[in-house]
Specification:
With about 90 residues, this protein is mostly helical. The chain is built from five helices and no strands. The chain is flat. The two termini are about 20 Å apart.
Length: about 90
């Protein structure tokens, strides 16, 4: 979620979606927001790190958090695969 624009661009490259067509741009705007910065189509409440709610969620979702950390690390490692790739 922190890098939605880059994530969507990567999906489009892998799936061969042409981001330059009017139909595809319109679809991306409808589902991910309009303008330079894309966003999730659903709002999520902020849970401050270290808060009681955060601690409960972290305990219940320990493996999800480990997976998230791994994915963020891989996202950064794989960045070079997508640099300067246009559709």
């Amino acid at each position: 979620m922190e890098q939605m624009e880059e994530s969507i661009h990567r999906f489009n490259i892998v799936l061969g979606i042409d981001e330059t067509t009017e139909l595809n741009r319109s679809c991306m705007d409808e589902f991910f927001g309009h303008g330079l910065k894309k966003s999730n189509s659903h709002s999520h409440p902020e849970v401050p790190e270290g808060s009681p709610a955060w601690k409960i969620l972290a305990e219940k979702n320990v493996w999800d958090l480990k997976l998230h950390d791994f994915i963020v690390e891989q996202f950064d490692i794989q960045r070079d695969l997508f640099l300067d790739k246009d559709i």
